[in-house]
Every structure is written in structure tokens, then in C-alpha cells.
Amino acid sequence: MVAYDCAEWYRYDSAYGIVTSMYIPRIVDDELAELSAGLPAIALEGAKGVGKTATAQRTAVTVFQLDEEPVRIIARADPKRLVRSPHPVLLDEWQRVPALWDLVRRSVDEGAVPGQFLLTGSASADHTDIHSGAGRIVSIHMRPLTLAERGCGTPTVSLTDLLSGKRSPISGTTDVALEDYVREIVTSGFPGLRNLSGRTLRSQLGGYISRIANRDFLEQGHRIRKPQSLHRWMAAYAAATSTTTSYEKIRDAATAGESDKPAKKTTMFYREILERLWILDPIPAWIPTRNHLRRLGEAPKHHLVDPALAARLLGLGTTALLEGEPGPLAIQRDSTALGQLFESLVSLNVRVYAQAKEATIGHLRTQGGEHEVDLIVERDDHRIVAIEVKLAQTVSDDDVRQLRWLQNELGDDLLDAVIVTTGPHAYRRRNDNIAVVPAALLGP
What is the pTM of this model? Predict the structure, then answer.
């Protein structure tokens, strides 16, 4: 049996009040090392608090922390100094001085060496006066900690092996139970929150959400006149986690009982900025290219960067989730908030593992909703692994009917089919060879 042993670590972040004391290896480390060995400039991007700076600092020789005003003043006064400094040079929160992006791009054109520049940013670029960086600066998306990175069990089933199409034997046992998954949902995958619990954790998550409206939007050049309206919209979006609910329904849920609803333009603005800040992390609809599946929906499946933010926005703690409460803004009436957030947790894991293997992620839903598959992991040859997420310890024939349908539709293009559960054992079903894998046993 594998014991449940989630690691704790601490790091200080002046903006978010987070303290950590040790670095836990990340799956993205290998990707960063491989690309830095051959490319002169890498941008590590993702939401605040996911650990970008700590990861980049491990390889940097010179660090410019551009969230500090004195450093920004120097960077603006003598930007060439950044190029002359011993490398690798880390430009942390580069978007605070947008001109640095073009400086790095020009340095690449002029012959920068592999691994010379690392850039970290908590917002994607939206400056019409800077070059896209295409062909010069390669971006890596960094997300919160996966269960494997948190030390929650020891994975015995590899997404890499599933993508091979070998349909190898599946095995493994874990002690991680439903209560543990719930704890992981509410604790979050932000490294600096791993040591917190109870009211302290809730306060930090609440502060993170409040700063999005009070500071992060402002840093993007936009002042929110009514922060409470943005908070309600985010809560409604959180209630739609793991669904394809329309944005119109999300707006209606955010303004239930109000006659003066925000304009569609306003809520689309919320969405645009939140995606730029990497707070929203929707999964796009899968559009197949090698087969003739018809009438597929094109709506994205909604996810926040971390399911802990969704739980906090909905005011749901461990007790409420375990008791099956739907939350104050339930949009998906045929599922529980816990079921939606567990799927979001699994989706976070699979996305990190897939990125490491250069695979893409989507979801499948026919237009009428007759068929749905939670996650489609696609190789570069367009063959796929299909993954369903089930909040249960056991799996019945009815639970795998969507995967069986997809097998009939795709044939050999379906490399493998998986049900991810909260159960203790990993195995393959005898009658259809579908893999049943506890979330804690699925790894890269």
C-alpha cells in the first residue's frame, strides 16, 4: 500500500504573503531544461503563485525582479545592462517593463546564445507596440502543482505509456481516499499555500481573489468600478466548472434577481482579462482531423487555474463538499460541486502531464449532449487517449459506455481509454480493456 504523504514547503512572496522553505521538483523542470539547451529565450508564463520565479531562479545567474520599483527604474534607464549581465538572465515579471520583450527579441536576432534569457510573467502580452516574439521567444505554460508533485501517493500509471498505444497491464494501489482528494481541492496547488489550513488558508485564497480586481486588473490598465460585480461573475464561472455552460447563463447566474444586468461587452471584458492573467484556464473542444465524427460542440469546458479558487469563490469547504452541497450558484443541476471540482483537479493533472509529452488537450461533446468524454489527449499524429473522470470508487458498465462508443467510432485511432476514479486500485477491465486508474496513481 502507498501511504498518503503530501509534502509541505514554504516560500516568501511579498505580493501574496506566501512563505516557502524548499523547492519541490516540478514536471516542467525537464521541459525548461530541454528547451533552454537549444533556445536563447524562454518565457515561463502562468498565474501568480504557481511557482514560476522559484523554478526559473534555479538556473538563473542574474535575476532582475521587475515587480520592484528600483529595479524597474534601472531597467528603463539602462536596458542594455540586462543583455550584458552574466547569463542565464532572469527577467522576473517582465510585463512590468514591456519594452524588455523587444530587447530580448532583438538580442536573439543578434546572436544570443542558448539559455541566455528567461522571462517570467503573470499576464500574457497585450501591447500593440511590441513584437509577438514568434520564432525568437518560446513560451512554456506553468500551472499549479499536480498530485504527483504534491507528494500525494506514488503514480504507477504513466500518461506516457498510455499515449504509446501499447495498452500495457495496469496495476497499483493507493491509500488516498475521497477525503484526501477533497483536502487537495480546497488546499490548492499553489506551492506557497501548502502549509496553510483552516481560516488562514481561506484568508489567503480570499485575498488572492480580491487582488485580482483590486490590483491585477489595474496593472493591466483597467480599473474595475464595481469589484463586487466581477467577484459575482467569477463565482458564477466557478459554479460552471467542468461544464460547457454558456456565458449568457453564467451572466444570468451572477446577477440573479437583478434587473440591471451588466452588458455582454462587460462580461466579455472580464473573461478576456482573466484569461490574460491565466486565472481562467478553459479546455477547448476537441476538433478531430482524422475521422468523421459529426455534430461536435465547439464550446469550451470551464476551469479556473486551480479548483481551490473555485471552491473559495463558492464558499465551499471540505465538510460542505463531502456532504454534497451544490453551492450558492449551482448551474449544473445533475452533478455535485465536488464532482465538478474533482474533474477540475484531474484535468489540471492531465494537462501538466500532457504538456510534458507535447500532447494537446480537449474535451468531446456532441451538439445535443448525447455523447461526452471529459478529456481527449491527442498526440501529434492525431491519435488519442480518451479519459473520463468519475467521483466513485467503483466502475460499472454504464460508466464506460461513452468510451465504448468512442472506440467504435475511432477504432485504432483511440490509443487507450481510461476512467479516473477515487478508488484504491488500478487495473484493466477484462471485457473491454478499459483502464481504471485512481487519480493519485496517474502520473506523467
Answer: 0.91
